[in-house]
Write a structure and sequence with these properties.
CATH architecture of the largest domain: Orthogonal Bundle
Helix content: 40-55%
Largest sheet: 3 strands, antiparallel
CATH class of the largest domain: Mainly Alpha
Radius of gyration: 36 Å
Number of helices: 18
Strand content: 5-15%
CATH topology of the largest domain: hpI Integrase, Chain A
Length: 470
């Protein structure tokens, strides 16, 4: 094959874009392809019509295509080299140009949208987006149940949302330094964010009353987003600033609800205006399902005959077994003509739950604790880790073993059983002798009785008469 240069064509006819991209291709070309003719300009072949384009791209590939005119071939070469050069550039311009808010915005579309806890993670991400001047995001589903993100435009407050907004404002007011630091981090370029500043964020969050678990989730979000950028977005040479921060360990929740507390909870649920709250709470305890899974549950996913329900778990679909009590609860639920088992939104459930636990005088009982209450009940009932794994919808028995170990470490039942079986001969003091009295008053009374009564002394003790004062 012999190249033929176009007749009467000056060398300056090559466009500046084609020349620049050809130079970039040459500089980025692997060693094994360097030295080959790169043919960044169109050419003709003797005996054939048309113009041929056969550039060598930075990855060593050499696409070949024929065009009717030299101009079209030249334009295609420039486009191919530009696209190849763009593919070698870091996403968002790299950590020197991208802000933390821009990184998290892209990360939300790339990763968060697929997570089971997407709503909670988006709440954290939106705080950084606010600091970076980007619109907030929320998770929505289309008619085919496909998950996607939607940008939220600022809207004026509605009258029915004023109470909720006041609640949010009060909570934010308690953590002004935390949100100010998060907004500052969101506006920074990623290259300027340091491990020291993230350590300051962790300290500030804990000093303003946030739990170690909340701090862990905040830094875990940033760590995962930076790792994604380094691994997939070609952020070469960038070190993750969230690596190396030592955090306190969050304690495993071992929730106990007494019989009296259960009774108060049921009474408060019966007084709730929404009739769906009582069965929702009962199913949360009985099935150990998360709130998001229960609210996303559809009748088409429920099989009362086989006593199973297929729900979206934490990032994947799971099949949960249903107890007889759960089946009876589902049979008694009213239907609104749709496929949804519960028509309540997550926000409506949270508002109703706040009123319920206030009326039940259980201010520290969170809705997510109901899952722990159910898991603890089954563990105390003797479920082994494999059975408990199926109830919880986990892929492994690791978390189930935590519940089993916590129950085994709870020695209350063993203590009661030992006292009942062996018996104790020592009598208990009468319960009503000193009930409600001051300890110091009782001690003074007993001391006066002992001194005034001249109690009998041991044989080896001699009492000497007191000397009278002169």
């Amino acid at each position: 094959m012999k190249e033929k240069s176009p007749k009467n064509q000056p060398a300056s006819a090559v466009t500046p874009v084609a020349a620049a991209t050809a130079q970039l291709a040459s500089a980025s070309q692997p060693a094994k392809t360097r030295g080959r003719p790169r043919k960044a300009r169109p050419y003709q072949i003797d005996g054939r019509s048309g113009w041929w384009a056969n550039p060598t791209l930075p990855d060593g590939s050499r696409p070949l295509r024929k065009f009717e005119s030299e101009a079209k071939a030249e334009q295609w070469i420039a486009e191919q080299l530009e696209q190849a050069a763009a593919g070698l550039q870091p996403a968002l311009g790299g950590p020197e140009r991208a802000t933390v808010a821009q990184m998290l915005f892209k990360y939300a579309y790339r990763c968060t949208v697929l997570k089971g806890g997407a709503d909670a993670e988006l709440t954290r991400i939106n705080n950084y987006l606010h600091g970076g001047g980007l619109p907030a995001l929320r998770l929505v589903t289309d008619d085919s149940d496909r998950r996607k993100l939607e940008q939220m435009a600022p809207r004026p407050r509605a009258k029915n949302q004023e109470g909720w907004q006041q609640y949010i404002d009060v909570r934010r007011g308690l953590r002004t330094e935390t949100y100010a630091l998060i907004h500052r981090i969101g506006s920074m370029t990623c290259a300027k964010l340091t491990t020291e500043l993230l350590g300051d964020l962790a300290t500030t969050m804990e000093s303003e009353g946030l739990s170690p678990s909340t701090v862990q989730k905040e830094l875990a979000l940033l760590k995962a987003a930076f790792n994604t950028a380094i691994r997939e977005w070609r952020w070469k040479g960038f070190e993750n600033p969230a690596v190396g921060i030592k955090l306190g360990k969050s304690e495993s929740r071992f929730v106990r609800v007494s019989s009296d507390e259960e009774q108060r909870l049921v009474e408060a649920l019966n007084r709730c205006d929404n009739p769906q709250m009582l069965p929702l709470v009962e199913l949360a305890i009985t099935t150990c399902a998360r709130k998001g899974s229960l609210l996303a549950m559809k009748w088409s996913q429920v099989s009362l005959e086989t006593r199973e329900v297929h729900v979206w778990g934490k990032g994947f679909n799971v099949t949960l077994p249903l107890s007889r009590r759960a089946v009876e609860l589902l049979k008694g639920l009213p239907r609104d003509g749709t496929d949804k088992v519960f028509s309540m939104s997550s926000n409506a459930v949270q508002l109703a739950w706040n009123h319920v636990r206030e009326n039940a005088q259980l201010p520290n009982l969170q809705f997510r604790d109901l899952r722990h209450v159910g898991a603890t009940f089954y563990a105390r009932a003797g479920f082994n880790p494999h059975q408990l794994k199926a109830v919880l919808g986990h892929k492994s028995t690791r978390m189930a073993e935590v519940y089993v170990n916590l129950v085994n470490a709870d020695v209350h039942e063993a203590l009661d059983r030992a006292e009942a079986e062996r018996g104790i001969a020592r009598p208990l003091p009468p319960a009503d002798v000193h009930a409600g009295r001051d300890v110091k008053a009782i001690m003074a009374e007993r001391r006066a009785q002992r001194l005034n009564g001249q109690p009998e002394l041991p044989p080896n003790v001699v009492r000497f008469p007191k000397k009278r004062a002169a």
